[in-house]
Specification:
Layout (H helix, E strand, L loop, with lengths): L2 H7 L8 H10 L1 E5 L4 E3 L7 E7 L2 E7 L2 E8 L4 E2 L1 H6 L6 E4 L3 E7 H10 L1 H23 L5 H16 L7 E4 L3 H8 L3 H14 L2 E4 L4 E4 L2 H8 L3
Antiparallel strand pairs: 1-8, 2-7, 3-6, 3-8, 4-5, 4-7, 9-11, 10-11
Keywords: DNA-binding, Transcription, Transcription regulation
Protein name: Crp/Fnr family transcriptional regulator
Pfam families: cNMP_binding (PF00027), HTH_Crp_2 (PF13545)
Length: 227
């Protein structure tokens, strides 16, 4: 992967200087995982930050035999930074939802890079603040109707990771159970709403290609209260 492509894929690296990108590219390690494989395990000590080159993962919290999806991440995002920065065991694990390609940078080298490149350091703080704002938005709509909350989840995924196509913004066909858990509504409600949105033509669920098309993004955004 050329450093220019590296920069274009990852918003975190958009302000990094060329020397930083070159160094990152040289020290990064490639990983590939099939769908369903654990990428990171809870309680493991943070030893690397991971960048999603392609595919989709879910961040989940486990309690005994039960697990709950907390977030869905796609191409261009990163994870593992919290355990690196506070030097503590991870409180969540990460599971591949689809075949996924990742790059990892060791804790020691990533911290060196942050100290060497103030712009990258600042950009990382900006993105972490954005994540906090997204959490606040989810808290603000916690009492909203299920359809509003689910539309908010779909729109957020489309804005962050959606690929433009002739049919609409294209995202991975995330299992309804994971969508329900991330949105904090029941699986029954999620299934009912997704089918209704599909019937209305606002979304198109393509099971053959494992894809959800956000066909009427404006209407979804209106429902989510984002416009």
């Amino acid at each position: 992967m050329q450093t220019e492509i590296f920069s274009n894929i990852f918003p975190l690296l958009s302000t990094a200087n060329p020397q930083t990108l070159e160094w990152l590219f040289n020290v990064a390690i490639d990983h590939e995982y099939p769908a369903g494989r654990a990428v990171l395990m809870e309680d493991a000590w943070g030893n690397a930050v991971y960048f999603v080159v392609s595919g989709w993962v879910k961040v989940r919290r486990t309690c005994g035999d039960d697990s709950v999806a907390l977030a869905i991440l796609g191409k261009g995002d990163f994870f593992g930074e919290m355990a690196i920065l506070d030097e503590s065991p991870r409180s969540t694990d990460v599971i591949a939802l689809s075949p996924v390609k990742l790059l990892s940078v060791s804790r020691e080298r990533f911290i060196q890079i942050l100290f060497k490149d103030p712009q990258l350091h600042h950009r990382m703080l900006q993105l972490m603040v954005r994540r906090l704002r997204q959490i606040n938005q989810r808290l603000q709509i916690r009492s909203s109707p299920p359809a509003v909350k689910l539309a908010h989840t779909l729109v957020s995924l489309g804005e962050s990771y959606g690929q433009e196509s002739n049919t609409g913004k294209e995202i991975f066909n995330i299992p309804f159970k994971d969508l329900a858990e991330v949105t904090e509504i029941s699986l029954e409600e999620t299934t009912k709403i997704m089918h209704k949105l599909h019937d209305k033509g606002w979304i198109k669920i393509d099971h053959d290609n494992n894809t959800i098309y956000l066909v009427n993004f404006k209407q979804l955004s209106n429902l989510a209260g984002k416009v």
